[in-house]
Amino acid sequence: MAPASGIVNILVDGNVVGQATLDGNGNYAFTWPGTNNQGTHTLEADYLGVPNQFNPSDSSVLNEQVQPIAQNTQTTISANPDPVAPGQPVQITGTVTTV
Question: Does residue 89 lie in a domain region?
């Protein structure tokens, strides 16, 4: 059986984001530049087919997880001395940690 030829549409979340041409072995490659939208995104390839040679077909849906861009943080604050007399300097300190 000869390998298919033609074009594959690449879809992310149901939207075409590009196309790839099949090589002589029926393989394709496409680099998705990604998204800043964290969460699960669906990836799919839809082969367009070649009239009178190859029927169209669609891949199964692949779920791709995009991690958060930044980690969550927690910030603390304290003052010394506390309480303080009028006009007395206060040193304020704290910590920022990832959670």
Answer: no
Measured CA to CA, the distance from residue 33 to residue 21 in angstroms comes to 18
First to last CA, the chain: 55
pLDDT at 38 (0 to 100)? 86
Residue listed under structure tokens 């997880």: 65
Find the domain containing 49 and state its range: 7-66
> How buried is residue 54: exposed, middle or buried, by Cβ count under 10 Å (0-12/13-18/19+)?
middle
Task: Dump pLDDT digits (tens) for 10-49.
Answer: 999 999 999 999 999 999 999 998 887 888 999 999 999 9
Number of domains forming the structure of the chain: 1
